């Protein structure tokens, strides 16, 4: 029967089908849960009771007035700082591995390999690296003669536990960012660099006036991934420290999980999730505004 229809009718049916099915899946698994999350954020639902009493803005007032909830965001700052360093290193290695370097494909694979490893496996791996008594890092520092540093509790100090955890993320994701930058660098015509060399431009001038403008949008993309990753980090602190010591490494996502599944306060956890979503949107909007103004 379908073959008997006019060609234009068949074409419209196919187009509508290809559009309707993904849209239906998007509405079912993305927009509807998001709207339900917003609705639950105005209730005191405990996750099991059929009663969902409407309490208005009380959950949001609790999020912003309780320093134990909203103050957890400061722990994510370390991931943002290390993420910026991660992008700088990624650009540096991308430029090096985009040159005529012998064995560059091997080094590309070596740097990208950590990204394909399982996050939980990486966390357990670095648990042995940062162990205070028998960790390979402290053993290595002691061998080099840094006795004061060889006894450091990298995961037990409130001062830099978050930077220790963020450094693991740097090791794991830097290769991924490098590959993205490398693809962007390979799209730049080599004629531009040849012309700049003839005009007497050195390597730094070529980087500033040719490389950076051509990869500016890629930098914006990677910073987008860095900011969202820094605000939504969960697996590393959950596996390695479980938020310790004394809650110093607890992230906002961990706080949401514990509020929902440990304290059975799904209404407050939903409000926290909405606040996180809005916070991500605001931060990314500011970032996009600043980058676009700098690009202009």
Shape: globular
What distance separates the N and C termini? Answer: 56 Å
State the share of residues found in helices, binned by percent.
Answer: 55-70%
Secondary-structure element string: HHHHHHHHHHHHHH
CATH superfamily: MetI-like
Helical segment count: 14
Number of structurally distinct domains:
1
Classify the secondary structure makeup into a structural class.
mainly alpha
Mean pLDDT: 88
CATH class: Mainly Alpha
The CATH architecture category equals Orthogonal Bundle
Proportion of strand residues: under 5%
Domain ABC transmembrane type-1: 76-287
Keywords: Cell membrane, Membrane, Sugar transport, Transmembrane, Transmembrane helix, Transport
Family: Belongs to the binding-protein-dependent transport system permease family.
Organism: Paenibacillus phyllosphaerae
Description:
The structure is a single chain. This protein has 14 helices and no strands. With 296 residues, it is mainly α. The protein has one domain: MetI-like fold (Orthogonal Bundle), CATH 1.10.3720. α4 runs parallel beside α8 and α4 packs antiparallel against α11.
Keywords:
296 residues; mainly alpha; MetI-like fold; 14 helices; 0% strand; globular
Layout of helices and strands, plus pairs?
Elements: H1 7-40, H2 58-65, H3 67-70, H4 77-97, H5 104-112, H6 119-129, H7 136-143, H8 161-186, H9 190-198, H10 203-214, H11 216-231, H12 235-240, H13 252-262, H14 266-295
Helix pairs in contact: 2-14, 4-8, 4-11, 5-8, 11-14, 13-14
């Amino acid at each position: 029967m379908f073959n008997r229809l006019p060609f234009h009718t068949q074409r419209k049916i196919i187009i509508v089908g290809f559009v309707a099915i993904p849209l239906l899946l998007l509405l079912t698994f993305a927009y509807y849960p998001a709207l339900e999350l917003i609705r639950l954020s105005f209730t005191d639902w405990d996750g099991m009771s059929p009663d969902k009493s409407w309490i208005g803005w009380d959950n949001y007032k609790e999020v912003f007035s309780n320093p134990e909830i909203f103050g957890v965001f400061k722990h994510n700052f370390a991931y943002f700082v290390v993420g910026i360093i991660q992008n700088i290193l990624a650009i540096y290695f991308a430029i090096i591995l985009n040159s005529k370097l012998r064995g560059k494909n091997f080094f590309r694979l070596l740097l990208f390999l950590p990204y394909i490893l399982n996050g939980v496996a990486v966390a357990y791996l670095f648990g042995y690296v940062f162990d205070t008594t028998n960790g390979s890092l402290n053993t290595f520092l002691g061998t080099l003669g840094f006795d004061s540093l060889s006894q450091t509790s990298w995961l037990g100090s409130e001062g830099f536990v978050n930077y220790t955890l963020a450094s693991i993320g740097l090791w794991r994701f830097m290769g991924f960012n490098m590959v993205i930058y490398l693809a962007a660098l390979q799209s730049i015509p080599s004629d531009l660099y040849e012309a700049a060399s003839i005009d007497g431009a050195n390597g730094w001038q070529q980087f500033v006036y040719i490389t950076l403008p051509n990869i500016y949008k890629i930098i914006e993309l990677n910073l987008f991934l860095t900011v969202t990753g820094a605000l939504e980090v969960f697996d590393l602190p959950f596996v390695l420290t479980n938020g310790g010591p004394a809650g110093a490494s607890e992230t906002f996502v961990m706080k949401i999980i514990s509020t929902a599944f440990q304290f059975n306060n799904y209404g407050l956890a939903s409000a926290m999730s909405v606040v996180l979503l809005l916070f991500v949107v605001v931060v990314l909007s500011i970032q996009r505004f600043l980058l676009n103004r700098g690009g202009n």
